[in-house]
Amino acid sequence: MNKNKNIGCDECHWQGFNVKGSGVYAKAELCICVQNCKECTGTGTLLSKNEKGYSYVTPCQICSVIRRNVKLYNMAGVPAKYHDVLQVGTRNDEDGVSGGHEER
Q: What is the mean pLDDT of residues 9-35?
């Protein structure tokens, strides 16, 4: 398997998920391109065999990381008003900007 394969489409801007800000919390949802992953047919796992012939389940190299990140994002409880924020800066940023948040 090639770990450098990408998943995504124009609908999700090549990220594999979309974030919506309706309700109290922002909600990440898998894009249809991840739900229809060609590697695992949308299950997120693959059935593999080792050298002894034993079958075992492995995470899909293409979409399992996206699926995990969507789950973690939704568990984090990000307020809906921040649904479009991709990254928050910190005081340790190289440019010295605090990410738009001031200390009180």
A: 90
